[in-house]
Design brief:
binds magnesium ion; alpha/beta; binds inosinic acid; globular; 4-stranded mixed sheet
């Protein structure tokens, strides 16, 4: 077997800048495929490529590097959104011919899924029809991509694509994060898919061929949705402004909180993280306050170096990268 895979997962509530990490890893030229393994167009990947800003919802970041980019079987796809992304990439001058694929057994988000969510949404979803599309998938009443004739030229069978006599090296890119995972998140304030490394395996990836798992978080937390998340403190307004914490998909303000180190450790353990990236260190640096939560207490540090070494000691993980928003890791 010559299939190998690395995984990028979110360790918090989405918006950890996973796209930035994927984008960086794609530059290594190591990968033959990039696979989005869960979610729909609820996710928004903001990618800065050669000076241009792109927000993609469905198509993985590999496409910017001419790597085959696949929307996996764990995803749900809005066809209009998919085609508008294809057009957007084309009109930016990217050569995407033969590079974009959809697993034939991925499911389709229909207009009625979207209408349904727009009439009622108690947990504060992105209203993109995500939950109803997954519900219909599991109720066996959904529609697969292979039933949509317009998609024909993009369809692939993941088994046939990955299990060949050619070397295959896949970067699996998760959407959302551990705190929004259907099983591990704070139900019902969750999304409807599997956001962990386990979710990547469901796309014809053998468990024993996983190499590195890149876990991505921020040095503080954000969450978008209906539950109360942000403590009552002016500092979080500052974090939101400096960090530009507004949803890439819906523009909603993200609720902010300090980094919860115990929750991060749990996400690291469950995902089998081997490399950790903590983004947006420059936001706390600009504000000049460093705090985190552990053992249900909020701890303050006098500077960035002190907080970072506390995190390094506590997590006992060899490869931890603290990263600024604007710089690459
Ligand atoms: P849904 O995924 O649209 O069903 O929304 C479920 C929950 O996940 C809501 O709290 C959304 O705000 C949140 N969510 C879904 N996708 C993202 C994302 O890409 N970033 C951050 N939050 C998300
Ligand atoms: Mg995102």
């Amino acid at each position: 077997m010559i299939v190998n895979a690395d995984v990028v997962v979110g360790l918090q509530y989405g918006d950890e800048a996973k796209g930035k990490v994927t984008h960086h890893l794609c530059k290594s030229k190591k990968y033959t495929h990039v696979l989005r393994f869960n979610g729909g167009c609820n996710a928004g990947h903001t990618i800065y490529h050669e000076g241009n800003k792109f927000v993609t919802h469905h198509i993985p970041a590999g496409v910017f590097f001419g790597i085959k980019s696949i929307i996996g079987s764990g995803c749900v796809v809005n066809i209009d959104q998919f085609f508008s992304e294809v057009e957007g990439l084309k009109s930016a001058g990217l050569d995407i011919e033969g590079k974009i694929f959809i697993a034939k057994n991925a499911h389709v988000i229909t207009d009625s899924h979207i209408d349904e969510e727009n009439s009622e949404s108690s947990i504060g979803t992105t209203k993109r029809g995500n939950g109803p599309a997954y519900r219909d998938k599991y109720a066996r009443t959904g529609k697969r991509a292979e039933e949509v004739s317009e998609l024909e030229e993009y369809l692939i069978d993941l088994y046939d694509e990955f299990h060949t006599d050619q070397p295959v090296n896949i970067l699996c890119e998760g959407a959302q994060g551990f705190g929004l995972d259907i099983d591990f998140g704070n139900y019902p304030y969750v999304t409807s898919s599997h956001c962990t490394t386990a979710g990547a395996l469901l796309n014809a990836i053998p468990y024993n061929r996983i190499g590195d798992v890149w876990g991505v978080g921020k040095v503080y937390e954000t969450y978008v949705g209906s539950k109360d998340f942000e403590p009552d403190d002016e500092i979080f307004n500052q974090i939101r402004e400096v960090g530009e914490e507004y949803g890439a998909t819906t523009g909603r303000p993200r609720q902010c909180n300090w980094l919860n180190l115990d929750f991060l450790q749990k996400a690291i353990n469950v995902n089998g993280v081997t490399k950790l990236v903590l983004n947006k260190a420059d936001v706390l640096r600009e504000i000049g306050i460093w705090k985190l939560v552990t053992d249900e207490r909020t701890i303050a540090f006098s500077d960035e170096a002190e907080m970072n070494s506390f995190i390094e000691d506590k997590l006992a993980l060899r490869d931890i990268y603290f990263s600024d928003d604007k710089n690459r890791i």
